[in-house]
Amino acid sequence: MVDVGDDAPDFTASLVTDGMEPFRLSDHLGDEPVVLAFFPAAFSNTCTDEMEAFRDGFDRDGCTLLGVSTDLPHALAAYRAQYDLPFGLVGDPDQHAIEAYDAVEDFEHYGVETVARRAVFVIDADGTVTYRWLAEHAGQEPDYDALAEAVSDAAV
Cβ distance 37 to 67 under 8 Å? Predict the structure, then answer.
């Protein structure tokens, strides 16, 4: 399990912003803290509440915020557009990211074997994990104030 003080595991996936492109985490490290916000499924209630909280009430200045899910990039593009999300979404259908961060959730009761567990990691410019939060139950959102403090601490 990835913990505070560990080197952030690198992974490849797809990045959805105004377009779609290949993504490698290590290419985004070095300038400012990176926040990886893992979420189970685009268009679901709690995930949308969380992404809207990141859009509306979370200060994204001074960090690179990325939502990460196992959804396909085209679904994430539609989700990002529908909810006007101003940050990138990482499509991880091959589960490289969720496995690297041990953010795997069993979703078989919905007919889907595996999705991302709701989790947040802050990675400083040196590539070290400085904050980790894992949801303890469905419907739980992160403590946005504690996360903002962690981002601020990682920026120094």
Answer: yes
